[in-house]
Amino acid sequence: MTEPPTLSGDEIAALMNExxxxxxxxxxxxxxxxxxxxxxxxxxxxxxxxALDRMNERMSRRLxxxxxxxxxxxxxxxxxxxxxxxxxxxxxxxxxxxxLSIYGFKPMKGSILLALRPDxxxxxxxxxxxxxxxxxxxxxxxxxxxxxxxxxRLTDSILTDLAAVWSEVIPARPQLRSRETNVEFATLxxxxxxxxxxxxxxxxxxxxxxxxxxxxxxxxxxxVEQELIATSPDDVSAxxxxxxxxxxxxxxQVRVKARTVLARPELSLAELMQLRVGDVIPISLPAHVPLxxxxxxxxxxxxxxxxxxxxxxxxxxxxxxxxx
Length: 324
Fold this sequence. Notes:
Order of helices and strands: HHEEHEEHHEEEHHHEHEEEH
Structural class: alpha+beta
Largest sheet: 7 strands, antiparallel
Number of strands: 11
CATH superfamily of the largest domain: CheC-like
CATH class of the largest domain: Alpha Beta
Shape: elongated
Number of helices: 10
CATH architecture of the largest domain: 3-Layer(aba) Sandwich
Oligomer: single chain
Strand content: 15-25%
């Protein structure tokens, strides 16, 4: 037995009439395409990112020099390329407890944010007070008074150096606005707004690498975008200065052999042939001994002791030989 149709005959006829009448109802309606602007100003490409990356290269060297007195060794600081993120996505990657310092950066509009992980702060304090800096991360949800004090010094110093780097673009004036330890209270931007994230990767001691994030709202960078673009890599003076800094940094890593000669006793060939174990060769130490680098004397010093080991104290340096 066949089942009755779902629609009645009258309903089917009405549908068929609608299909035939549809073209007549749309007569007079224009189907020509019209322009439509998708997105907003924030979605425009950030042409200023290359200039920001160039400044970050210089900032990485300043950060290395800044951290050295804290960790008592020269740390490794690498900078990653700046990326555009949605602020909510960046916040989702942060731990529940983190150091967030929000600074005004006039004349740039808005604020910028400096983020430091708590384990990085703890290691800095450990190093600063004579430890190895390899301390395990603490489960604490607040900073100690000592950590707070060091954090204030460190973040202010970082922003001072950052302003010095930005000085070729704008005469930036950093001013602390707030400190937070929970990203939900970081009022840098709305969650759906884009931000530019600059990340410095710091490595010292035997611990894991630590991240130092500087976050700029894209709307703030837009306010100085023309100034950033104007600092073109074709600027010969800027490019020459950057090349010089990189060359000096590279040369500074070259290792050379240095030695000193305490005495040069002279023996006859007969005396040399008759040497036996236990023989004593008298020598006289001069008042000053030379420091030789690749066979060339560059300084004079006196022999002494330091931390239980023999040491050479430099008295005079022949600058002419160093610069030759």
